[in-house]
Design brief:
Helix 1 runs parallel beside helix 8 and helix 1 runs parallel beside helix 10. The relative contact order is 0.18. It contains 16 helices and 21 strands. The chain is globular. It has 517 residues and is an alpha+beta fold. The model has no long low-confidence stretch (mean pLDDT 93). The strands form five sheets. The chain has a seven-stranded mixed β-sheet. The chain binds flavin-adenine dinucleotide. The site of flavin-adenine dinucleotide has 35 residues, from helix 1, strand 2 and helix 10.
Length: 517
């Protein structure tokens, strides 16, 4: 370290993770005792440039950084995301279940903090889907409605929402804001070497064009290169490919047929024999891609599946004009995330397939965690590092269990799906919970830490969306519960009547903006 107190934070990497780190840190100088922030990015190593789905947490993140929602929506081609829809995850297509789908909306089931409504829904599971019964947001998704109207100001909402965005434009907006408004020092140069002090803490990085840059805390946002955490400190990535097999993606940007085409209010995830296809609606285009496992699928096979999907969903497309990107990743996360005075955030910390879009939220959570326990002095680092590691490991493990849930409940029959259901391919904690949930419904006590990544509500949406019903008899609804259900349906109808579509609200924001807060 250059000094024993932390006066200078150096971030390596200018992708979404690097600029989100710079923004959240520089916007909250009271949490870092006014530490200076420098971001170094290589002109030779491109950013990943994918990652189009965020969580509702992004609203608070942008607000904290000081970016208005209007500016964000205008500059990032962003749209509103109200959850995910899973198509064809339960059965093979040829089982006559062509329209089978379920939602995992961002809003909690009605009355969730006071009452577990799931056991009362079981009696009517054939009549109405779980998410339709307990969340009015599902109706908004069905009709591609916005989560609010032009009468609401920046970040205000009727239904909980995150965003779909253009990752390249997002990094550019953050960069511009961090440099112009938050005084972040930006250096464009490749980091060639790393210099340690006597305690093996990093004291400086050697850049190709700007000499030595000294610092006290180094944040590794260099993506899968792991320039500090892996190349310098040799902290291993713990592969999770025995649980979640996907390690490849092919992705394409698809223009809309016309300016009136509906913009989806959710990420659509459609199951395939060897993976799944995401479909995301931005303002000016769709982002569509297939995630798959190289053990079960070839690149050409994945491209063929992607093209077949595109042909089914949009007829006018000239497929020959589309450029398909190929992406590779190793599903896994680091053995340690904080080593000496180096913290890995973003892809350098790990990545598991984009189902449920948990990467950017992990960036946000890691930064919130770091800033809530900021190491003002070198002596505090080992203890804080240990805490940070424990918390981050916990989160990765919960993410893996939740993603795996989507696969183990499926009855799809291809080799890929069968392998997912093999007894040794699921985490023990998930198997135990699934056993328990045959006799009781997931609820508040199942995941009781502050800031759980996926709450028991998320488990309910997936379990009951995939019709994985418990073995205990359905409960008869008391009058109070019927009242809740009725209220939820009424809210849905009122919401439907009043709210604009996603496209209408986005067009309005482009023209007139939202009221600033
Ligand atoms: C197929 C796919 C789909 C995804 N979908 C989603 C999604 O829907 N939602 C979501 O939240 N996430 C998603 N992600 C993850 C998301 O893309 C990443 O979390 C996000 O882009 C952050 O990446 P990053 O900034 O960590 O790394 P990168 O974008 O790779 O940036 C790395 C930076 O480090 C710099 N760098 C590297 N080496 C050096 C060096 N030696 N010196 C200086 N600089 C260096 C590079 O120049 C670059 O600026 C997806 C990922 C994939 C692969």
């Amino acid at each position: 370290m250059a000094t024993s107190t932390v006066n200078h934070i150096v971030i390596i990497g200018g992708g979404s993770a690097g600029w989100l780190s710079a923004g959240l840190i520089a916007a909250q100088p009271h949490l870092t005792h006014n530490a200076k922030v420098t971001l170094i990015e290589s002109p030779n190593v491109p950013t990943l440039g994918v990652g189009e789905g965020t969580w509702p947490t992004m609203r608070q993140t942008l607000k904290t950084i000081g970016i208005s929602e209007t500016q964000f929506i205008r500059q990032c081609d962003a749209s509103f995301k109200q959850g995910s829809r899973f198509d064809g995850w339960s059965h093979d297509e040829n089982e006559g279940q062509a329209n089978e789908h379920y939602y995992h909306p961002f809003s909690l089931p009605v009355a969730y903090q006071n009452l577990n409504i799931a056991p009362y829904w079981f009696a009517q599971h054939d009549a109405v889907s779980f998410s339709h019964a307990v969340s009015s947001q599902t109706y908004l998704c069905d009709h591609n409605k916005a989560p609010k109207s032009h009468l609401h100001s920046d970040y205000q909402t009727v239904a909980n929402y995150g965003y779909h965005l253009d990752a390249g434009k997002f990094a550019q907006l953050l960069q511009q804001h961090c440099i112009d408004k938050l005084n972040v020092n930006h250096i464009i140069s490749h980091v060639d070497d790393v210099i340690n002090d006597d305690d093996n803490y990093i004291s400086a990085v050697q850049t190709r064009d700007h000499g030595l840059i000294t610092g006290d805390l180094f944040i590794d946002c260099s993506g899968h290169h792991g320039r500090l955490i892996e190349q310098h400190y040799k902290v291993a990535l713990q592969s999770q490919d025995h649980i979640l097999f996907n390690d490849r993606a092919v992705a394409v940007q698809v223009p809309y047929a016309n300016n009136e085409q509906e913009i989806l209010s959710y990420t659509k995830a459609t199951a395939q024999d060897t993976g799944w296809i995401w479909d995301i609606g931005l303002q000016s285009r769709r982002g569509v891609g297939m995630v798959y496992s190289s053990k079960f699928e070839t690149t050409q096979g994945a491209k063929d599946k992607l093209i077949s999907y595109l042909n089914k969903t949009q007829s006018h497309l000239s497929l020959a004009e589309l450029t398909i990107r190929e992406l590779k990743f190793t599903p896994g996360y680091r053995e340690h995330f904080w080593h000496k005075n180096c913290i890995a955030i973003g892809m350098s910390a790990g990545f598991i397939e984009p189902l449920e879009a948990s990467a950017l939220v992990m960036v946000e959570l890691s930064l919130n965690n770091l800033l809530a326990n900021f190491p003002t002095h070198k002596n505090a680092m080992p203890q804080l590092a240990q805490r940070f590691d424990q918390q981050t490991h916990y989160r990765w493990q919960r993410i893996i269990e939740f993603l795996k849930l989507h696969y183990v409940l499926s009855k799809r029959t291809s080799e890929y799906w069968q392998a997912h259901r093999a007894p040794n391919a699921a985490p023990r904690a998930l198997i135990d919970n699934l056993t328990l949930w045959q006799y009781q419904s997931p609820w508040l006590n199942d995941f009781d830490r502050a800031q759980e990544v996926f709450s028991s509500a998320s488990y309910q949406y997936v379990l009951y969306g995939m019709k994985h019903l418990p073995q205990f008899p359905a409960m008869k609804m008391p009058a109070a519960v019927i009242e809740h259900f009725t209220k939820s349906q009424q809210e849905a109808k009122q919401g439907l009547a009043k709210l604009p579509t996603n496209r209408q609200l986005l067009n309005h924001i482009q023209k007139f903006g939202l009221q600033p807060i």
